[in-house]
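## retry 2 of 3
previous attempt timed out at serialization; input unchanged, resubmitting
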Amino acid sequence: MGDIIRPEFPQSSEDPDKLVRSMNVLLRKLEPIARSVVTWSPPEGQADEQLEASTSQIMAALGHMIAEVEDFRTDNADKRFARGDMSDHFWSMLFLAQIAVDRFESRRAADPAHKQIVLAGDSMFDNFAYASGTHILEQMLQSLPPSWSAYGIAVDGARVRDVPGRLATMLPSNTTNLVLCVGTIDVIEALRRVGGGRRHVSVATLLAEPLADFAVAYAQLLDILARLPLQVSVCTLCTAIPLDDPAFASLAHSALAAFNTVIVDEAERRQMPIIRLEQICTDGGDFSFASLVGPTKTGGQKIANAVLAAMLETT
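## retry succeeded, writing output
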């Protein structure tokens, strides 16, 4: 099996025609893979590594396509992007790919050792644009035990308030474990609202209102997750993000630490396992200079390893 197919979307999704063309190209590449999964009939009890790799390709690509369409609809409400914009071949292939995934996952779910891990949140789990071609989901898929699978519903730039909507529309029905990492964009937006660093005002005073707002929103999100029949783990925010302005960097790092206190408190209150990313991604090379908050291939591998270790601990 070759490398995982990586969708190549236009840098700017302002043109629906370019987006449609990109997706059609990707689905043509997926077609033979999806057909091989749908038509495969294994002997009883036999596993097949190639089938698993094929399904992983489809899942990773479908996740990116769905996220791209959602981003387009969000950012370009005045532009038309509906079923009629896509060719019949696109839709038939999309459904075929989904059937392939569903068939494989139904087989795997019958295994008592099966775990379906879903990564939710922001660019810490959606670093496709920042990782030199190796997405964190791909790194996860390459390391999982045979009966486990992983799926991503995270989207670059997401805030806490964006996560419930993605859960409602994209969470696979066979999910057993969900890992959440979100809040960095909330911190950055909070700092912009308060005007960066105001002189003669303490960090605690500066952050009091946005921190209180975040605490309410994050608690509500964890309450939603706590009601789902899943094992939920939460990640703290990385505090070693490289920033050029020393004054802003100092304030940002203090803010990230304060927001982490909220994350830890709310997770502990609900007895949810915590993955301490601020102790894992500690080097400047772990973060992309194109994004600052998005992990590089190196940072992504550290995060993937930490998530896998946390999942193994809960087995």
